[in-house]
Amino acid sequence: MNNEQYINKLEDRLQCLDELRKEQVKICTAIIGDTLYKEDLFFSSAIDRSIALLDGVSGMLKQRNLACTGILLRAQIDNCMRVFAAFIAEDQATFIDGFIRGEEIRRMKDNHGKKMTDHNLQERLAAYDGSVETVYKNSSGYVHLSDKAFFSSVTTSASNRYDIEFTVGLPLKEKANPVLLEAADAFIHYVYLQNSLLEKVVTAKESI
After folding, report:
1. What pLDDT score does 117 carry?
2. What does DSSP assign to residue 115?
3. I need a surface site. Which of 71, 72, 97, 112 has the fewest CB within 10 A?
4. Where are the strands (E) in the chain, listed by range?
5. Which whole-number Å values give the CA distances from 44 to 49, 105, 180, 199, in the listed order?
6. Which of 30, 58, 57 is nearest to 43 (CA)?
7. How is 142-160 classified by DSSP, letter by letter?
8. Would the pLDDT of 7 be above 70?
9. Is 89 exposed, middle or buried (0-12, 13-18, 19+ CB in 10 A)?
10. Considering the entire predicted model, what is its pTM?
11. What contacts 44, CB < 8 A, 6 or more positions away?
12. Backbone region of residue 166 per phi and psi (left: phi > 0; alpha: psi in -120 to 50; beta: other values)
């Protein structure tokens, strides 16, 4: 897939991201409503962070910046896990109070009595989304210096497989374009997942 084909395929995904951004603003407006609760502070901050990540990933996809796209995908999954934590917290009011005070979520307990570490949140969320553990692990490779950074900077020559080429600071190879599109699809998926969780908050608040 050459760069021109990539840009054409990316267009639909960018449009989807734009629509999701508008949907997130609508959800936040509905959550806040006419009466503000402490829970709204948590959920609105999660939405604001997600919108910032969405804006960032749109730009990185246009620039074909795979490393930053992977990091932003990892951050969006992290956002989903934190929103999900509010649903499975041992006591939601205590969870929200702790969040506002700046306590670490990984030190708080879920409704099974276990601390809500990233590993635990992944396992709990996997019951609703089976891909989360694999995508989280793969995208984490862009957050921490790993083999993904190595394979992005060193490739075999197109003319001779015994030659290697260093591409440090050069444009991303076209062979990475399918991976960029996969990352875009994954990011969209986890915005949808987050929105589906937050819509439950909207429904609950409408019933009050």
Report:
1. 95
2. B
3. 112
4. 154-156, 164-166
5. 9, 17, 29, 12
6. 30
7. HHS--HHHHHHHEEE-SS-
8. yes
9. buried
10. 0.84
11. 28, 31, 32
12. beta
